[in-house]
Amino acid sequence: MSLPSLKALHYFTVAAKTGSFVQAGESLHVTHGAVSRQIALLENQLGIQLFERRNRAVFLTEQGQQLAQTCHSVFSQLEKQLEQLTAEQQAQSLVVSCEPTIAMKWLIPRLGDFKEKYPQINVQLVASGGPIDWRQSGAMLALRRNDFQWPTHLYQHKLCDEYMGPVSSPKLSMTAPDTILLDTATRPNAWAEWQQLSGQHLKFEHKSYEHFYLSVQAAVAALGVAMASFLMVQDELANSQLDAPYGFAKDNSAYYLLSEQSFCGNRAIFCQWLSEQINLSLKGVG
Q1: Could you tell me which residues come within 8 angstroms of residue 99 by beta carbon, excluding any fewer than 6 positions away?
Q2: Around 144, how many Cα atoms within 13 Å sit in the side-chain half-sphere?
Q3: Residue 84: its pLDDT value, please?
Q4: Which CATH class is domain 6-90?
Q5: Which of 101, 104, 127, 261 could cysteine-pair with 212, CB 3.0–4.6 Å?
Protein backbone atom coordinates (compact mmCIF):
# COMPACT_ATOMS: atom_id res chain seq x y z
CA MET A 1 0.00 0.00 0.00
CA SER A 2 1.28 3.44 -0.92
CA LEU A 3 1.56 6.00 1.86
CA PRO A 4 -1.21 8.59 2.21
CA SER A 5 -0.41 12.15 1.24
CA LEU A 6 1.02 14.44 3.89
CA LYS A 7 -1.77 16.91 3.12
CA ALA A 8 -4.49 14.35 3.90
CA LEU A 9 -2.79 13.32 7.14
CA HIS A 10 -2.37 16.97 8.14
CA TYR A 11 -6.05 17.74 7.52
CA PHE A 12 -7.03 14.61 9.45
CA THR A 13 -4.81 15.59 12.41
CA VAL A 14 -6.30 19.08 12.63
CA ALA A 15 -9.86 17.72 12.33
CA ALA A 16 -9.14 15.16 15.05
CA LYS A 17 -7.79 17.87 17.33
CA THR A 18 -10.69 20.29 16.80
CA GLY A 19 -13.42 17.62 16.56
CA SER A 20 -14.99 19.55 13.72
CA PHE A 21 -14.47 19.77 9.96
CA VAL A 22 -15.69 23.37 10.06
CA GLN A 23 -13.21 24.42 12.75
CA ALA A 24 -10.47 22.47 11.01
CA GLY A 25 -11.21 24.35 7.79
CA GLU A 26 -11.02 27.68 9.62
CA SER A 27 -7.71 26.69 11.17
CA LEU A 28 -6.31 25.57 7.82
CA HIS A 29 -7.84 28.53 5.92
CA VAL A 30 -9.80 26.22 3.61
CA THR A 31 -13.46 25.26 3.36
CA HIS A 32 -14.89 22.50 5.53
CA GLY A 33 -15.69 20.70 2.26
CA ALA A 34 -11.98 20.59 1.41
CA VAL A 35 -11.29 19.02 4.81
CA SER A 36 -14.10 16.50 4.31
CA ARG A 37 -12.78 15.51 0.86
CA GLN A 38 -9.22 14.95 2.09
CA ILE A 39 -10.41 12.78 4.98
CA ALA A 40 -12.70 10.80 2.66
CA LEU A 41 -9.73 10.16 0.34
CA LEU A 42 -7.67 9.05 3.34
CA GLU A 43 -10.41 6.69 4.54
CA ASN A 44 -10.81 5.22 1.05
CA GLN A 45 -7.06 4.68 0.69
CA LEU A 46 -6.75 3.04 4.11
CA GLY A 47 -9.99 1.13 3.78
CA ILE A 48 -11.09 2.12 7.30
CA GLN A 49 -13.52 4.64 8.79
CA LEU A 50 -11.76 7.32 10.82
CA PHE A 51 -14.80 9.42 11.78
CA GLU A 52 -18.40 8.66 12.57
CA ARG A 53 -20.74 11.26 11.05
CA ARG A 54 -23.83 11.80 13.21
CA ASN A 55 -26.24 14.70 12.90
CA ARG A 56 -23.66 16.95 11.20
CA ALA A 57 -21.16 16.19 13.99
CA VAL A 58 -18.05 14.00 13.67
CA PHE A 59 -16.49 11.63 16.20
CA LEU A 60 -13.26 9.67 15.96
CA THR A 61 -13.61 5.92 15.67
CA GLU A 62 -11.29 3.70 17.71
CA GLN A 63 -9.03 3.31 14.69
CA GLY A 64 -9.24 7.05 14.10
CA GLN A 65 -8.11 7.70 17.67
CA GLN A 66 -5.11 5.41 17.20
CA LEU A 67 -4.10 7.14 13.96
CA ALA A 68 -4.68 10.59 15.51
CA GLN A 69 -2.28 9.82 18.37
CA THR A 70 0.41 8.66 15.94
CA CYS A 71 -0.11 11.63 13.60
CA HIS A 72 -0.02 14.11 16.49
CA SER A 73 3.30 12.67 17.65
CA VAL A 74 4.79 12.66 14.15
CA PHE A 75 3.66 16.22 13.31
CA SER A 76 4.89 17.52 16.68
CA GLN A 77 8.33 16.02 16.01
CA LEU A 78 8.29 17.41 12.47
CA GLU A 79 7.37 20.89 13.72
CA LYS A 80 10.17 20.84 16.30
CA GLN A 81 12.68 19.67 13.69
CA LEU A 82 11.65 22.41 11.26
CA GLU A 83 11.90 25.02 14.01
CA GLN A 84 15.40 23.76 14.84
CA LEU A 85 16.49 23.85 11.20
CA THR A 86 15.09 27.37 10.81
CA ALA A 87 16.83 28.52 13.97
CA GLU A 88 20.12 27.03 12.75
CA GLN A 89 19.72 28.76 9.40
CA GLN A 90 18.97 32.09 11.06
CA ALA A 91 21.99 31.63 13.33
CA GLN A 92 24.16 31.35 10.21
CA SER A 93 22.61 34.42 8.58
CA LEU A 94 23.97 37.89 9.13
CA VAL A 95 21.77 40.83 8.14
CA VAL A 96 23.90 43.92 7.58
CA SER A 97 22.46 47.39 7.07
CA CYS A 98 24.77 49.57 5.00
CA GLU A 99 24.67 53.04 3.44
CA PRO A 100 23.67 52.53 -0.22
CA THR A 101 26.70 54.02 -1.98
CA ILE A 102 29.25 52.25 0.23
CA ALA A 103 27.26 49.02 -0.22
CA MET A 104 27.20 49.26 -4.02
CA LYS A 105 30.61 50.80 -4.70
CA TRP A 106 32.73 49.10 -2.06
CA LEU A 107 31.16 46.37 0.08
CA ILE A 108 29.31 44.24 -2.48
CA PRO A 109 32.36 43.83 -4.77
CA ARG A 110 34.26 42.39 -1.77
CA LEU A 111 31.62 40.05 -0.37
CA GLY A 112 32.84 37.27 -2.63
CA ASP A 113 36.01 37.17 -0.53
CA PHE A 114 33.93 36.84 2.64
CA LYS A 115 31.82 34.05 1.13
CA GLU A 116 34.95 32.19 0.07
CA LYS A 117 36.47 32.44 3.55
CA TYR A 118 33.27 31.87 5.52
CA PRO A 119 30.85 29.87 3.31
CA GLN A 120 28.76 28.90 6.35
CA ILE A 121 27.71 32.53 6.98
CA ASN A 122 25.05 33.99 4.71
CA VAL A 123 25.37 37.80 4.56
CA GLN A 124 22.17 39.63 3.66
CA LEU A 125 22.47 43.34 2.86
CA VAL A 126 19.88 46.01 3.66
CA ALA A 127 20.61 49.31 1.89
CA SER A 128 19.86 52.10 4.34
CA GLY A 129 21.46 55.15 5.92
CA GLY A 130 20.97 57.19 9.06
CA PRO A 131 19.19 55.90 12.18
CA ILE A 132 18.57 52.14 12.23
CA ASP A 133 15.19 50.52 12.83
CA TRP A 134 16.63 47.23 14.06
CA ARG A 135 13.31 45.45 14.48
CA GLN A 136 11.72 46.40 11.18
CA SER A 137 14.85 45.93 9.07
CA GLY A 138 15.97 42.76 10.86
CA ALA A 139 19.50 44.17 10.86
CA MET A 140 22.08 42.57 13.14
CA LEU A 141 24.89 44.94 12.17
CA ALA A 142 24.90 48.42 10.64
CA LEU A 143 27.71 50.16 8.77
CA ARG A 144 27.31 53.90 9.30
CA ARG A 145 29.17 57.19 9.14
CA ASN A 146 28.86 59.15 12.36
CA ASP A 147 26.85 61.98 10.84
CA PHE A 148 24.00 61.40 13.29
CA GLN A 149 23.65 60.58 16.98
CA TRP A 150 22.95 56.93 17.67
CA PRO A 151 21.77 55.50 21.03
CA THR A 152 24.49 55.10 23.63
CA HIS A 153 23.53 51.49 24.37
CA LEU A 154 24.70 50.32 20.94
CA TYR A 155 27.98 48.47 20.63
CA GLN A 156 30.30 50.25 18.21
CA HIS A 157 33.55 49.51 16.45
CA LYS A 158 35.38 52.28 14.60
CA LEU A 159 36.42 51.09 11.16
CA CYS A 160 38.19 54.10 9.65
CA ASP A 161 38.22 57.85 9.22
CA GLU A 162 36.47 59.34 6.23
CA TYR A 163 38.62 60.67 3.35
CA MET A 164 37.03 62.98 0.80
CA GLY A 165 38.31 64.36 -2.49
CA PRO A 166 37.25 65.49 -5.98
CA VAL A 167 37.28 62.90 -8.75
CA SER A 168 36.71 63.16 -12.46
CA SER A 169 37.05 61.19 -15.66
CA PRO A 170 40.52 61.30 -17.30
CA LYS A 171 38.64 62.66 -20.32
CA LEU A 172 37.66 65.78 -18.38
CA SER A 173 39.94 68.69 -17.52
CA MET A 174 39.34 70.14 -14.05
CA THR A 175 40.76 73.46 -15.23
CA ALA A 176 38.34 73.91 -18.12
CA PRO A 177 36.11 77.00 -17.66
CA ASP A 178 32.93 74.99 -18.25
CA THR A 179 33.76 72.43 -15.52
CA ILE A 180 30.76 71.45 -13.39
CA LEU A 181 31.07 70.45 -9.73
CA LEU A 182 28.67 67.67 -8.79
CA ASP A 183 26.88 68.00 -5.43
CA THR A 184 24.69 65.49 -3.59
CA ALA A 185 21.54 66.14 -1.60
CA THR A 186 22.65 63.69 1.08
CA ARG A 187 25.86 65.66 1.83
CA PRO A 188 25.29 69.18 0.51
CA ASN A 189 28.27 70.72 2.34
CA ALA A 190 30.84 68.19 1.10
CA TRP A 191 32.50 70.60 -1.36
CA ALA A 192 32.71 73.44 1.15
CA GLU A 193 34.15 71.16 3.83
CA TRP A 194 36.77 69.72 1.47
CA GLN A 195 37.85 73.16 0.27
CA GLN A 196 38.30 74.31 3.85
CA LEU A 197 40.31 71.21 4.76
CA SER A 198 42.47 71.15 1.63
CA GLY A 199 42.95 74.86 1.07
CA GLN A 200 41.84 74.39 -2.56
CA HIS A 201 39.14 76.64 -3.99
CA LEU A 202 37.42 75.52 -7.17
CA LYS A 203 34.93 78.10 -8.39
CA PHE A 204 32.72 76.47 -10.98
CA GLU A 205 29.03 75.91 -11.59
CA HIS A 206 27.40 73.27 -9.34
CA LYS A 207 24.90 70.58 -10.24
CA SER A 208 23.17 68.46 -7.62
CA TYR A 209 22.34 64.75 -7.59
CA GLU A 210 20.24 62.94 -5.02
CA HIS A 211 22.83 60.32 -4.02
CA PHE A 212 26.59 59.90 -4.07
CA TYR A 213 26.46 56.88 -6.37
CA LEU A 214 24.66 59.00 -8.99
CA SER A 215 27.27 61.74 -8.83
CA VAL A 216 30.09 59.16 -9.02
CA GLN A 217 28.55 57.59 -12.12
CA ALA A 218 28.13 61.06 -13.61
CA ALA A 219 31.83 61.71 -13.00
CA VAL A 220 32.74 58.43 -14.71
CA ALA A 221 30.66 59.59 -17.67
CA ALA A 222 32.67 62.86 -17.75
CA LEU A 223 29.64 64.95 -16.82
CA GLY A 224 31.47 66.81 -14.07
CA VAL A 225 33.73 66.61 -11.05
CA ALA A 226 32.29 64.69 -8.09
CA MET A 227 33.17 65.00 -4.44
CA ALA A 228 33.50 61.46 -3.15
CA SER A 229 34.64 59.30 -0.30
CA PHE A 230 37.81 57.38 -1.14
CA LEU A 231 36.03 54.11 -0.36
CA MET A 232 33.31 54.94 -2.88
CA VAL A 233 35.71 55.36 -5.79
CA GLN A 234 38.67 53.13 -4.92
CA ASP A 235 37.88 50.62 -7.66
CA GLU A 236 37.28 53.32 -10.29
CA LEU A 237 40.63 54.90 -9.40
CA ALA A 238 42.37 51.52 -9.61
CA ASN A 239 41.03 50.82 -13.12
CA SER A 240 41.62 54.41 -14.32
CA GLN A 241 37.97 55.27 -14.80
CA LEU A 242 38.50 58.21 -12.46
CA ASP A 243 41.38 60.49 -11.47
CA ALA A 244 41.88 62.29 -8.15
CA PRO A 245 44.44 65.04 -8.92
CA TYR A 246 44.01 66.77 -5.56
CA GLY A 247 44.12 63.59 -3.50
CA PHE A 248 41.90 63.01 -0.50
CA ALA A 249 41.66 64.86 2.79
CA LYS A 250 40.59 63.35 6.11
CA ASP A 251 37.42 65.08 7.27
CA ASN A 252 35.94 65.09 10.78
CA SER A 253 33.80 61.99 10.36
CA ALA A 254 34.40 58.24 10.49
CA TYR A 255 32.76 54.92 9.69
CA TYR A 256 31.56 52.59 12.44
CA LEU A 257 30.08 49.14 12.67
CA LEU A 258 27.12 49.16 15.06
CA SER A 259 25.30 46.35 16.84
CA GLU A 260 22.62 45.93 19.50
CA GLN A 261 24.57 42.93 20.83
CA SER A 262 28.24 42.47 21.63
CA PHE A 263 30.60 41.58 18.81
CA CYS A 264 30.84 37.82 19.19
CA GLY A 265 30.22 34.81 16.97
CA ASN A 266 29.33 35.75 13.40
CA ARG A 267 29.27 39.42 14.32
CA ALA A 268 32.89 39.26 15.44
CA ILE A 269 33.92 37.35 12.31
CA PHE A 270 32.31 39.91 10.01
CA CYS A 271 33.71 42.83 12.03
CA GLN A 272 37.25 41.44 11.80
CA TRP A 273 36.93 40.76 8.07
CA LEU A 274 35.47 44.22 7.42
CA SER A 275 38.28 45.91 9.34
CA GLU A 276 40.88 43.98 7.34
CA GLN A 277 39.25 44.89 4.03
CA ILE A 278 39.02 48.58 4.89
CA ASN A 279 42.65 48.67 6.05
CA LEU A 280 43.67 47.13 2.73
CA SER A 281 41.64 49.73 0.84
CA LEU A 282 43.03 52.69 2.76
CA LYS A 283 46.61 51.78 1.87
CA GLY A 284 46.03 53.68 -1.35
CA VAL A 285 44.53 56.80 0.14
CA GLY A 286 46.35 60.08 -0.20
Answers
A1: 127, 128, 129, 143, 144, 145
A2: 20
A3: 66
A4: mainly alpha
A5: 101
